[in-house]
Amino acid sequence: MIQVRHLSKYFGDLMVLKDISVDIKKGEIVSIIGPSGTGKSTFLRCLNLLETPTRGTIHIDGIPLLDKGTNVPKVRQKMGMVFQSFNLYAHLSVMENLTLGPVKLLGKKREEAGQKAIQLLKLVGLAEKAHAYPDELSGGQKQRVAIARCMAMAPEILLFDEPTSALDPTMVSEVLAVIRRLAREGMTMLIVTHEMEFARNLSSRVLYMDEGLICEEGTPEQIFDRPQKEKTKAFINRVRSLHYRITSRDYDPVSY
Ligand code: ADP
Ligand code: MG
Question: N or C terminus of the chain with fewer C-beta within 10 Å?
Fold first, then answer.
């Protein structure tokens, strides 16, 4: 579904993505893990052209995204992106957030879009919030609305950029539960996450990114239990010791 070859990206002189080649197949759930500043967000943003790659090729369903003649908005509609910071329209109700895109961009009838929106709000457990405004919702609820809004555009693949890292710890699991539910329904997903247990349980494949490269990839068992590269081993060990600290009783999330 997505084919990336020799993708690189510079910001000025800074080479953020070095030479990324990867394939994402239909129905796969691929997690991207790795230290911050490694280019994970830039990589996702290049896939839907929120950033323009410097070199390389990206094919979405066989369509060359970077070719001049390509209808970029049309290809981009195949991909929904969920951001850390929700990005809901604050002046619109939840219902309007969910129907705006389908009506304006997909040419759906308002009523049809509304019915679909209700269905999606049920899927994310928020049917009763249809007429609320974003600032009346908790962070977890906002993120669930943001996911429903993506789904309203009927994407073929969802890209998640650390969907839970702006949330209170108490709200992480409700968002992960929604993502799990989409996974069960066969949605193709690419997820940048720091939630290692989640990545391990859900993913068909894990990519470990470091310094602008996919340093290692494999099944969750390969990456988490038997990493081969030194960098991967070091990262997994660091995350593991952090996890122990978090689960110990004296962990203080504020001072961390
Ligand atoms: P990650 O998501 O893995 O934390 P990012 O993709 O956000 O990493 O960033 C990778 C590097 O690119 C960082 O050094 C960051 O400062 C830099 N960077 C990201 N976006 C921009 C930008 N728009 N302009 C300049 N530098 C950027
Ligand atoms: Mg990032």
Answer: C
Q: 232 CB less than 6 Å from ligand 1?
A: no
- State if residue 10 touches ligand 1 by the CB under 6 angstroms criterion: no
* Whole-number Å distance between alpha carbons of 213 and 64: 22
**What is the Cα–Cα distance from 220 to 197, expressed in whole angstroms?**
10
Q: What is the pLDDT of residues 86-131, one digit of tens each?
A: 899 999 999 999 999 999 999 999 999 999 999 999 999 999 999 9
pLDDT per position as a tens digit, 58-89: 999 999 999 999 999 999 999 999 999 989 99
Taking each helix axis as running N to C, give the angle between helix 94-104 and helix 110-123, from 0 to 180 degrees, rounded to the nearest 10: 130
> Which numbered atom of ligand 1 lies nearest the CA of 34?
3
